[in-house]
Structures are given as C-alpha cells and as structure tokens.
Design goal:
With 689 residues, the protein is mostly beta strands. The protein has a single domain (3-608), classed as TonB-dependent receptor, beta-barrel domain (Maltoporin, Chain A).
C-alpha cells in the first residue's frame, strides 16, 4: 500500500488537531520496520544494556563512599536546603501501589514521587513539565501544547497504556484511551505530590494501567489558607497569572478557590516558519475539606476550564469542560478504613473541519480495607462507570455510531500477607472488569517484597494487564462515508501484557539513596493494520495482528552533597521489538505504535547559595527516536530565585537553553521544534502555608 497515493493525509489531517492527526498517522502511515527480536540472543542483549546502569550505580557508590568522609559531620542549620531529608523522603507514604498508605522505601514497585517542593524548585508551570522530574517516564514535547508521555515504551501523543488520575479522577478519553494533555491544568502550587509508577498497576486501577500509573494528589484545603498571587511572562510563555484564596468555615471545615490564566506563544515548523499554534486557557475551581469527626473526612472539589488553540489555515480549536468530585473517607482504625468517591466529568473539543466531541463521564468507586488476623491486610473494592460520547463527524473521518452510551463494572481484591513479620511480604490480587466491547477481563498480579535490612529492600512482581478497545479501534472510518480506506475492526479485542519485574532499593547512608528496577514484558494482540480483502489494497482494517517484547532497566539516585546541596540522577535503558502474528498482513511492524528512545539520562541539582537565594539546574539527555528520525539531544533548564522573606519570591527560569530550537517528537513531514525560552515569575503569599 502506498499511503502517499491515497490522499488521506492531505484530505484529512492537514493542520488538524495534532493529537487526532497522530491517531490516524500512526494507524495508517507507519512506515519504519522494527527488526524482529533474535530470541537466541536475548540474554546477551540484556547483559549488554544492563551493564551501563550497573556501572553507573557502582560509580555512584564509589563516589559517595569518598564523599561521606567529607560530609558526615555536617550539622543541619537554619540555611539548610528547604526540602525533606532522605530518611523523610524514603518514609513518605504512597498509596498508588497498594491503595493503602505504605512507606516509599518498602513498596514492591518501581515508583518515584515528585513532591510539592520538587515542583516549586523546578520552576515548571504545567503538569507535563512537572512529569519530567520523574526519570522513569518518557516525556516529549511535541509542539507548543501537545505532549507524548508514557513509561516503558509505546510512547506517542495518543499513548494508550498509561493510566493518569488527578485526585482520583481518571482523565483518559475513551475516544482513543489516551490523555489530552493540553487541558490537564491543575493549579501548580496546590499539587501535594505526584506518584509515578512504571510498570503495570491494573490489579488495583484496572484497564489502561498497562505500562504505568500517574497519580496526582492535591493538597488539603487546610494547608492552603490565606491569599496567594502569582504572575509573570517571557518569550514562549508570554503571560500567566494565578490567584488562590483559602478560608475557614468552622474549626474543622476549610476551603479554597482559585483562578488561573496563561497565554503561550506559537512554536516553529522544522523549516523555521511559524507553526501558528499559540494558545491560551483559563481555569477556575474550588475545594472543600470537612473533618466531621476524627474518623470522617468529606471532600468536595471541582474545576472548569476553557481555551482556544491556534491552527494553520483553519479556525481555532476550542476546548472546554469541567468536573466535580465528592469523596467520603471513614477510618475505623489504623489498619481499617473505607472510601466512597463519586465524580462527574464533562469535556468538549471542537477541531474545525475535522471533528467535535462532547463526553460525559459518571463514575462511582468504593474501597474497603481491613485486617485479617495479625499477618494479613485485605483491600477490596467495586466500581461503576458510564460514558456518554457524542461525536460530530466530518467528510474526512467518522466515528460510527456517532453517539454511544457505554457502561463498565469492576471489582478487585488484594491480600497482603506477612510471610515473615516486618521482613517478607507477599501481595496477591486480581481485578475483574466487564466492558461492552470484550466482556469480562481478568488482571491478576503477585508481588513479593523482602526487607533485607532497615535500609535495603528487594522486590519482584508478575502481573497481567490489558488495554481494552477504544472507539478508534472499532469505530473509526476514513473517509466519513463509503467507500472506506481505513475501517475500525468490529472484532478488535484487548491488547494483553504479561510483565515480569525485579527491583532493589537501598539507602547506604543518610545522604544517599539508590533505586534499581528491571523488567521484561510480553505483549500480545497489539494493534495492527490488516488488508483483509487482499489483493485489494482497501479498506485497511484495524485488528490485533501484532505481538512484541520489551525489556529494560531504570536507575535513580538521590544524593545530599551538603545540607544546602542536593543532587538527583536517573538513567533508563529500553528495547522494544514488535512483529506480526501468524497470518497477519500488517507491514508496519508496529512502527506507528511506539516512538521511544533507547536511553535517557537526567541530572538535577538544587542548591541554596545563601539564606535567600536558590539555584536549580536540570540537564537531560534523550536518545534518538529511530522510527521518526528524531536525533538525540541534550538540554539544560535553570532557575534562579530570590526569597527575601517567607511570603515573597522572585524567580527567573530558562528552559532548553543549549539550543535555539530542537525537535523532541514527530515524523519529518509534520514535526514541530521546541524553542529556547526564558520567563520571570513573582509569587506572593499572605500566609506562610
């Protein structure tokens, strides 16, 4: 099939919304061939790429061993770096791995936590930028507003194997099972932490938690009291402002309201011309936290946003929506509690001459945790979701039927067993879901954590996860009326993953922590493009004709040089091989499903130069993306801040400082380039919280 001869790209996707264009590009026009894995040489390949991170780890330990003698007697002082100690960081309680509080140091998962202080010190102004702080993620900026974000491969602007939650609300769209990152815009100063899991989380979180989970948690209203004002602008981020006010309704009821706005400039095409994709967005919201008693907490929160995104030779794309979440938590004891959450989410997006969509989501989630004897802890839950999706089609493409209403039901149970009390823990469980496309899906897992000592934990896991069909898999047709060139597959089934993980986490001293994880993934029934009516070239039908393997390693470290200076490093290696199942006519070999660098390296430094002056630097190296011909690149971000007092902060942030512009993602025919940018920011708090 010669895709250039079909005229689909010229008729449909020229200057269309980048995310929708990527959907069709990667389905219909994947051209690069991925070499089939040589199974006999698999072990040799693993040894080769693991040797790099292992050597890095040895080097860090060697360096740290010489540095401890110089710094072990350093005492804390009032001018110390405004961040948690390593012990406090390792003792942070995370909930994304087991849906219960557990110490970061003892989790049986490859998890990283981005704290509120990490976000503040980085100077970022958006959620995708904040996710760069997790070295176990692939984060590529596509243009002024589009991002490709995933973990352990299969990255693209419509990545569909990563579950993203904001305060318990799932933000992926059933249109393509991915995330519209341009409208995920929480008030950045209100984020408490971001828990990032690389690896399956489907046993607890269900469908789409295949390669990872991103869980964004906001701060309690009682921690955001008083008035906060922020604003600034610069070269690419031309202007931004935000206001938040927190108050008290009674001694045990607190609230906050906020509003924000930003205006981002247009990016550049690869030939240096203006991409005409500047955009602006405004958002407001509220949160109420009511401690009705020591055992009960009620939370009510909501957001509304509206924005416009520029396009070349077309009217602006319009996006708006809102959500409201209600949550009740009841605590029976330290080991027993229950939670009930309900939310409603409405999104609207209109891409002129391409498509428009209104999506309404209703979700109910119940969870109960209780002990069973002295050595077992049970967590179980039930869930229900209703999606009502209404698409306005165009002559270029259509989702048929245009309007759908679909339900899904789920239940999970997980048992954590202390095989050796305080030393060895086994966690087993499964999630059972029912959807209207494929019926029942089962997603079991087993995880073992062995605490070798107070500062060392080794863990392993075996998991199964699925990515259920989205509307694009079964119901997309190109063009919008027959005869079709591209057709959704009525028999498309869930993509499947069997994952094997092994990890090690240690804190060899009070100033150094290390985490190392390896994985081997087997994928089946991956999305393919089949010529079912061969020798006729059309229609090309979306099916499950591919399978694949991936393996890799992730290394991260945190080192406190002194009380004033913190260094963090991360390194990842990744290999992916995709090939056709027997009988498949797919010739793309998965080149449109995965756009990933083989390796990434990150180094971040945070130092307090004086009592009132902070200096932060972040360097990243990202390998080339072979099937998009995106070259490898290295970039540097810097932040300088002056804090004359606890209520006032002035900062200057420079991003992508090593090049005038560079490409991070995209095929050569529609690639955008990311420019160097500088902006200033002023932040003022009426209270110190």
């Amino acid at each position: 099939m010669n895709p250039e001869a079909t005229g689909i790209e010229g008729n449909l996707m020229v200057e269309a919304d980048p995310a929708l264009r990527e959907m069709t590009d990667r389905l219909a026009f994947g051209r690069a061939s991925v070499r089939r894995v040589n199974r006999e040489g698999f072990c040799l390949k693993v040894i080769r790429f693991l040797s790099i991170p292992i050597l890095v780890m040895i080097g860090l330990l060697f360096f740290a061993g010489h540095s401890f003698a110089q710094t072990q007697n350093t005492n804390s002082n009032p001018n110390a770096l405004r961040t948690l100690s390593l012990k406090e960081l390792m003792d942070i309680e995370v909930t994304s791995v087991s849906k219960r509080p557990e110490k970061l140091s003892e989790t049986a998962s490859a998890i990283q936590v981005i704290t509120h202080e990490d976000i503040r010190r980085s100077g970022v102004t958006s959620l995708p930028e904040a996710l760069r702080l997790a070295s176990n993620l692939e984060v590529a900026q596509v243009d002024s507003r589009q991002w490709a974000i995933s973990a352990r491969g299969f990255n693209n602007t419509t990545a569909n194997k990563m579950l993203v939650l904001i305060d318990g609300r799932t933000v992926y769209t059933p249109l393509y099972a991915g995330v519209f990152w341009d409208v995920q815009n929480p008030f950045i100063e209100d984020i408490d932490r971001i828990e990032v899991i690389s690896g399956p989380g489907a046993t607890l979180w269900g469908t789409n938690a295949v390669n990872g989970v991103i869980n964004v948690t906001s701060r309690n209203s009682k921690d955001t009291q008083g008035l906060l004002l922020s604003g600034g602008g610069g070269t690419e981020l031309r202007g931004f402002s935000g206001i938040r006010y927190g108050g008290q309704l009674s001694s045990n009821a607190h609230y906050r309201v906020y509003g924000k706005f930003f205006d981002r400039g247009s990016g550049l095409l690869s030939n240096g011309q203006d991409a005409v994709n500047g955009w602006h967005l405004g958002q407001g919201g509220f949160r109420l936290d009511w401690d009705t008693s020591k055992a009960n907490l009620i939370t009510l929160q909501g957001d509304y946003y509206s924005g416009r995104m520029g396009q070349r030779n077309a009217d602006d794309t319009v996006a708006d929506g809102g959500n409201v979440i209600g949550r009740w938590s009841h605590r029976f004891s330290e080991r027993s509690d229950l939670k009930l959450q309900l939310y409603y989410d409405r999104t609207h997006r209109r891409v002129p001459n391409t498509f428009a969509e209104v999506l309404d989501t209703y979700d109910v989630d119940f969870q109960h945790r209780f002990p069973l004897g002295d050595r077992q802890s049970i967590v179980w839950g039930l869930g229900y979701r209703l999606n009502k999706d209404d698409v306005t089609n165009s002559p270029g493409l259509a989702f048929l039927p245009r309007r759908v209403s679909r339900q899904s039901f789920s239940g999970f149970v997980q048992d954590e067993i202390a095989l050796v009390k305080d030393r060895v823990h086994l966690t087993i469980g499964t999630k059972i879901e029912h959807n209207e496309f494929t019926g029942f899906e089962y997603q079991p897992s087993g995880r073992l954590a062995w605490k070798l000592s107070q500062r060392q934990t080794i863990w392993g896991a075996i998991s199964r996860a699925v990515r259920t069909p989205s509307r694009i898999d079964r119901e997309l047709f190109v063009p919008g009326t027959p005869p079709f060139l591209l057709a959704g597959g009525p028999g498309f089934v869930s993509e499947e993953l069997s994952a094997y993980e092994l990890g090690y986490r240690t804190q060899p001293s009070d100033r150094l922590s290390l985490s190392f994880a390896t994985f081997y993934n087997i994928y089946d029934h991956l999305r393919s493009l089949e010529q079912l009516n061969a020798p006729a070239s059309f229609p090309v039908v979306i099916a499950n004709g591919l399978k694949g393997e991936s393996y890799g390693a992730e290394l991260s470290s945190d080192y406190r040089m002194t009380d004033r200076w913190r260094l963090r490093a991360g390194y990842t290696e990744l290999r992916i091989h995709i090939y056709p199942r027997p009988g498949s006519t797919d010739t793309t070999r998965g080149s449109g499903e995965s756009h990933d660098p083989n390796r990434q390296m990150f180094l971040r430094s945070s130092v307090d130069l004086t009592r009132h002056i902070e200096f932060d630097a972040a360097f990243r190296f990202v390998g080339g993306i072979a099937n998009q011909k995106v070259p490898a690149y290295g970039e540097l971000d810097l932040r300088w801040a002056w804090r004359p007092g606890p209520r006032l902060e002035f900062s200057i942030v420079g991003q992508n400082l090593l090049h005038d512009r560079h490409a991070e993602f995209g095929s050569p025919n529609n690639r955008k380039e990311i420019e160097r940018s500088v902006y200033g920011k002023v932040l003022w708090r009426l209270s110190q919280k």
